Each structure stands twice: as C-alpha cells, then as structure tokens.
Amino acid sequence: MIIKSSDIVTSAGDFSTLPKASDMLEFVLIGKSNVGKSSFINNLLNRKKLARTSSTPGKTATANYYIVNDEFYIVDMPGYGYAKVSKSEKFRFDKIIKDYLRKREADFIVFFLLDFRHKPTENDLKMYNYILNYANPIIVLTKVDKVKRSMRDKNLKVIKESLSLTEEDKAILYSTVEKMGRDEVLRFINDVI
Ligand SMILES: Nc1nc2c(ncn2[C@@H]2O[C@H](COP(=O)(O)OP(=O)(O)OP(=O)(O)O)[C@@H](O)[C@H]2O)c(=O)[nH]1
Ligand SMILES: [Mg+2]
After folding, report:
1. Where do the domains of the chain lie?
2. Residues of the chain predicted below pLDDT 50
3. Best of 28, 34, 84 to mutate for ligand 1, by most ligand atoms within 8 A of CB?
C-alpha cells in the first residue's frame, strides 16, 4: 500500500468528544506510556512530526484521529501506566482507552504495542486481558533495534509465553530505527480495509 495522504482530524479528551463513528475502519494504538505509539504512526505514515513524540512518558494526552488516504483512520491513544502523571490524568487516560473499547460504534482493529526489550508488566497484562474482551489485537513489539540480534528469539518467546500465545501466533517486530515491520503492517492494513 502507498501512503498518499495523512492528516490530523481531531483530538478528543474523552469518549463523548470522539468523532462521529463512520463506516471507515479505525486502527487504534494501545500500549503503555512511552512504548512508541506516536512514533509508530509517524514511521508508518512516513511523516516526521504528524504525531507528537517524546522521550518523556505521558506525551499523548488525548485520542488523536488521523485520516489516511481518505480510506481509514489511525487513532493514537494516551499511554497507560505512567506513574508520574497526576492521578486524575491517569484515570482519564485509562478511561478513554476502555470506553473506546467498550463503546465505540465504528469497526476497529487494535494494535497492542509492547516494548520488545522487556517482559510485559502487570499493567500490560491487565490491559491485554481487558482488550481481549472486545477485540483480537495485533501484537506489535517495538524498539526491536534496542535488542541484540542474539537475544531476539529469546525475548520473543518470553513475551509470547507471558501473553499465553503459542509460537505460531503472530507478533510483528517493529523498529522505527531499523525500518522493521512497516511493510508487514501496511500489508495487513491493505488486506483488511
Ligand atoms: N530506538 C528506538 N526508539 C524508539 C522506537 N520507537 C519509539 N522510540 C522512542 O521512544 C520514545 C517514546 O516514543 P513515543 O512515540 O512518544 O511513545 P508513546 O507510546 O506515544 O508515548 P506516550 O504518548 O507518552 O504514551 C521516543 O523517545 C521515541 O524516539 C524504536 O523503534 N526504536
Ligand atoms: Mg504518544
């Protein structure tokens, strides 16, 4: 698939201000704070600064809708699990993610992002299990460039085991630095839209 156009549509602070559900498919990014959701969007869409990123967690504070090729939406979400945002912000971040999963009327596909370097955290597993009630997420493992090649098979195995996936279950290895995973994600999107 060729990305011909991409644009921000809107930013919503809570469920009630999300754009009206349409018949366009929505690909929504869920993952802990700083895992690389916004970077994934920029990398996928070949845009440097469409989605704002930061080395400090807690950057994305709203559900941000991007329209791509006038064909589908990509939805960036705030991250969960960052201790340093205020209690009320943490609650709001969690709520918009969960409200979206529970109540969003548009068809959506979840990309669940996990840091390839680490075993999923307690928060990751809680969110993963929550997602499973509403969707069958595509697992995307980020920052693969930060893991030595000799360790990659092992990390993949640990992560799959902790999600109770089998070895055959798919997980997409992604890196914005090594340009890994982009074609696979674009192919997947192209197949489902
Ligand atoms: N080395 C490397 N760094 C990455 C990769 N993806 C993201 N990063 C870095 O990770 C940090 C966080 O990236 P963001 O895209 O802002 O993360 P986020 O999940 O949107 O974070 P929040 O909006 O706070 O929830 C930034 O410093 C990125 O440059 C990757 O594939 N490789
Ligand atoms: Mg972000």
Report:
1. 6-192
2. none
3. 34
